[in-house]
Amino acid sequence: MVDDALISLDGVEKVFDVRRRVGLMRREKRQVRAVDGISFAVARGEMVGYIGPNGAGKSTTIKMLTGILTPSGGRLRVAGIDPARERVRLAQRIGVVFGQRTTLWWDLPLKDSYGLMRRMYRVPRARFEENLERCVDRLDLAELLDVPVRQLSLGQRMRGDIAAALLHDPDVLYLDEPTIGLDVVSKAKVRGFLRQLNEERGTTVLLTTHDLQDIEQLCERVMVIDHGRLMYDGALGGLHSAGSVGESERTLVVDLERELAPISVPGARVVKVEGPRQWLAFPAGSSAAPLVSAVAAQYPLVDLSVREPDIEDVIARMYAGRG
Amino acid sequence: MAEAVLEREFAELEVPRARGRLREGLRGYGLIVAMWVRSTMTYRTSFVLSTVGNAAITLLDFVAIYIMFSHVDALGGFTLPEVALLYGSCSASLGLADLLLGNTDRIGARIRDGSLDTMLVRPVPLLAQVAADRFALRRLGRIGQGLGVLGWALCTLDVEWTAGKVLLVPVMLLAGGSIFAAVMVAGAAFQFIAGDAAEVQNSFTYGGCTMLQYPPTVFATDLLRGVTFVVPLAFVNWLPALYVLGRPDPLGLPGWAAFLSPLVALAVFVPASLAWRAGVRSYRSTGS
């Protein structure tokens, strides 16, 4: 274990008892190991991506790190504090943003929520003003401060939530799906802000995401978790080469007028056929435009969509590469 | 780096561990309550209407008893002013607990939708946040109505007032409010295990109050034993009111038992807070 680690986990486990109904009255008790012996350390100032498929144990880990859940076994420390034991004290040291859950006050202007944070966290006024000004400036919140939160768009609210999590100068910022459902502009703004925060203030950031670009643009270090176990811990580049035969791929999904044999167009290969729908994989670096016109010229095209490569693909290929 | 160290120091300076959890809880409670009051005031008309409605509904509640007494002279041997004393005191006590902790029954919903998570990452004890959740000033309506009926009863009753009896009236209201509050905390703790048990909780608080509005003499002895020795609701208003009225306890408890109410109120917080702690520790959160 590294000495100056801000976050350290040693053989951490979380076991849930799941009761399942079998028959009318009888219930079967089963144990689910959501987190099954995870150990890692994060040093101050690192920015780490924590990824894995749904149900892999990501959220459970984050919830143990924030003190929401009590681990079933192992040792866990954040800033020297045992989260489950001293949840309230830990709260002063961490910032948490749940992508799908706002902590802002729905009916009140955005700035009222910030005022509450100042008092709740006992932030000295001068420091509060300074932090708020920086967040407002960089997250573009100036015009939103007087707007009731219920009137904000998803992207605006997310920016508002991120600011709310940072006003008390936390050592660690946990972000659970910070860019989920955001448009391209909002995503870029959020990412830019996080990078700056990490570089200038040295805030340690741990984020879970399904968006590969979040990781590519923000994290030098990636941890992959699956079935409650840590599968990979290292640079993103290493993950690519561990898992794939080259760079990641985008997918063009085409709906044809009728069922056809796998179509053939240059620069892409069919990876899946399902009735009149076919999936074509093509390199992430190239444009979809020539491919679309090629398909449209040769085949009866009804509809299409492009899917960006995501974490799941990379992880799936990582397993395929190993297996 | 120096800045980071400084930051840590101020974080630790500001929340010394020695500071009582109770004080921290009350402070956080006050902050959150203020936010809810401001939220309510953004819908001013709705607030006024619901406060008036709240008071009207609770008033009708007493009108029902009043109408009953236009047909009978006594209920279980109790006259209308005597029943009004029972009604007013338990209504005001419950109103007090309801105002201060009334939304603890919402914790079941918060557990199910996972929004309890956002409370758990804040530097305020969870119980204070749950108690302050959706704080509603309109609940002052019930307290006002209870105090009104109680005031009428005290003026109308033909009682020989002694210092003990005078003292017992405010003590009864506060102790009664605390007993209801402890029941609410225990009920909230139970919801960690039972998922959605708001109705179980309500049957003890609102249901209990409906029972306490009537003289103990109309109920079966077993029920009286239950609410005296198991869930000590009898200490909310029955025993103190019986003392004030100079009537004997149907279970034969001595008169001084009425003065045990504050002690009972403190005692019930022990199992309630233990249950609460166990509940929080067993919290499992939701899928993601």
Structural account:
The complex is a heterodimer of chains A (323) and B (288). Helix content of chain A is 33%, strand content 31%. Chain A folds into 2 domains: 5-243, P-loop containing nucleotide triphosphate hydrolases (Rossmann fold, 3-Layer(aba) Sandwich), CATH 3.40.50; 249-322, Alpha-Beta Plaits (2-Layer Sandwich), CATH 3.30.70. Chain A has 10 helices and 13 strands. Chain A is globular. Chain A is α/β, with parallel strands linked by helices and 323 residues long. Chain A has helices spanning 58-65, 87-91, 110-120, 125-139, 154-164, 184-201, 212-218, 236-243, 289-298, 311-322; strands at residues 5-21, 27-43, 47-51, 73-78, 94-98, 172-176, 204-208, 221-226, 229-235, 249-256, 269-274, 277-283, 301-307. Helix content of chain B is 70%, strand content 0%. In chain B, helix 4 (80-101) packs antiparallel against helix 8 (140-156) and helix 4 (80-101) runs antiparallel to helix 10. The longest helix of chain B is centred in the middle third of the chain and has 32 residues, at 163-194. Classes of the chains: A alpha/beta (323), B mainly alpha (288). The A-B interface holds A 16, 44, 54-55, 59, 63, 66-70, 79, 87-89, 91-94, 96, 98, 100-101, 103, 105-108, 112, 116, 119-122, 124, 127, 148, 168-169, 171, 176, 202 and B 1, 4, 7-8, 10-11, 14-15, 17, 24, 28, 31-32, 35, 38-39, 42-43, 114-115, 117-118, 120-125, 281, 283-285, 287-288.
> pLDDT average of chain A, as an integer?
88
| Content of β-strand of chain A | 25-35%
Main β-sheet, spatial strand arrangement of chain A = 5-6-7-3-8-9
Determine the most extensive contact between two protein chains: A-B, 42 and 34 residues
Which superfamily, in CATH terms, is the homologous superfamily of the largest domain in chain A?
A: P-loop containing nucleotide triphosphate hydrolases
CATH class of the largest domain in chain A: Alpha Beta
Q: How much of the polypeptide of chain B forms β-strand, as a percent range?
A: under 5%
Which regions of chain A contain 5 or more consecutive residues with pLDDT less than 50? Answer: none
CATH topology of the largest domain in chain A: Rossmann fold
Approximate helicity band of chain B: over 70%
Question: How many distinct folded domains of chain A?
Answer: 2
Listing every helix as H and every strand as E from the N terminus to the C terminus, the arrangement of chain B reads HHHHHHHHHHHHHH
The shape of chain A is globular
Cα Rg of chain B: 21 Å
Q: Mean of residue pLDDT of chain B?
A: 87
Task: State the total count of DSSP E strands of chain B.
Answer: 0
Helix content of chain A: 25-40%
